[in-house]
Amino acid sequence: MKSTTDKLDYITDYINQIMNDQQGTGLSVAIVKDSEIIYSKGFGYSKLEPEMQPIDGDTRMSIQSISKNFMAVSIMQLVEKDLLSLDDAVVHYLPYFRTKNKQESDMITIRQLLSHTAGFPSDVGIANMTAPNVREIFSDTPTEFQEALDYYNLTEEEINSIRFREDITKWFQKVELEYPAGKGWNYCTDAYVILADLFEKVTGTEWEANLQEKILTPLNMDRTTSDPMIVEEDPNSAKYYMGEDKIETPFPKNTISAPIGYLYSTANDLAKYIAFHLDEKPDILSSDLKEDMQRPVHLVSEEWRFGSDVRSYGLAWFTDMYKGLGIVEHGGGQMAVRSLMTMVPELNLGVVVLLNYDGTTHHDICDKVIDVFSDS
């Protein structure tokens, strides 16, 4: 039987071999075992200019759709306080929420927003298109920005009119449901802005302030934030590079749509967050509600299955099987950002991998860690 030290050395060697091909970009990895962080290491570089900056476990990076899990925990904390029920209709709290068919959208519940089973199409687009640097994102050709607007059936005036999360909720009156609520699954990232709007209407407080007070501070996640300015000004933060030529991509920022994918964290902070989800202590959220989040609600659509017959979605968690082991995970990605946090409850194991380049390395590393720790 290999010692833990031997296992971690093997993992380090494996990642070093991968990074030999990257020539500049980087990744950070943290591993949690039995609710303790046993591994934290950076490989490569967080920035290439003006000088190469080594990456480490405390490097602030975009975590993209992992952000949704924090939004979900905030909602579950309201459930724990009996301020709402997951099976309440959204319109009960947001009377201005509707889609093209009001009768159908009046039936949509909070649980269905969380689990992507509300009936929304997957390519709504409004939340990401409100990014302040959206023109820079779609600038590869002179017409790319207009092509993006056309694809999402949006106008520039529409996206400029979005000032608050409530505006995105109201915008959904344009949306036609693809299936009756609860009868299918589409990953609609925009739904999580509606959840933030709902949270703020129920509590009367800004979601980010509550996130800091009720989740980040209690978990000592002191390098996690929703403020892009803090991250961009932090010497130990990442920039992002696309393709073999390492083309720097626009910095991912969008404060209105922060809950869908615009939080920033570190491998070490996310390891603390995973430890909280693996631990039975109910300090931040009861064990029952954490289990409810991890319980599958619906099989995901074909393009999200990656060859699995059982890959499903709970409440801001994907669930699946890997070599006979149940896994619970969520990842994120946009342009040159890649993020992944995975738990294997049976092994009391958690893995975080954050990249500042495009590709599938994060999944390869996570699989290797699970292989190593499942081999007795």
SSE order and pairing:
Layout: H1 4-19, E1 27-33, E2 36-43, E3 45-47, E4 53-54, E5 61-62, H2 67-80, H3 90-93, H4 102-105, H5 110-114, H6 126-129, H7 134-137, H8 144-151, H9 156-161, H10 165-171, H11 191-203, H12 207-216, H13 228-233, E6 241-242, E7 247-248, H14 258-261, E8 264-265, H15 267-278, H16 287-294, E9 298-299, E10 312-313, E11 318-322, E12 325-334, E13 337-344, E14 349-355, H17 361-374
Describe this protein's structure.
It is globular, with a radius of gyration of 20 Å. Helix 2 crosses helix 12. Helix content is 37%, strand content 16%. Strands 2-1-14-13-12-11-10-9 form an eight-stranded antiparallel β-sheet, with helices on both faces. It has a two-stranded antiparallel ribbon with strand order 3-4. It has 376 residues and is of the alpha+beta class. It has 17 helices and 14 strands.
In short:
The protein has 376 residues and is an alpha+beta fold.
Which descriptors apply to this entry?
376 residues; globular; eight-stranded antiparallel beta sheet; single chain; alpha+beta; 37% helix
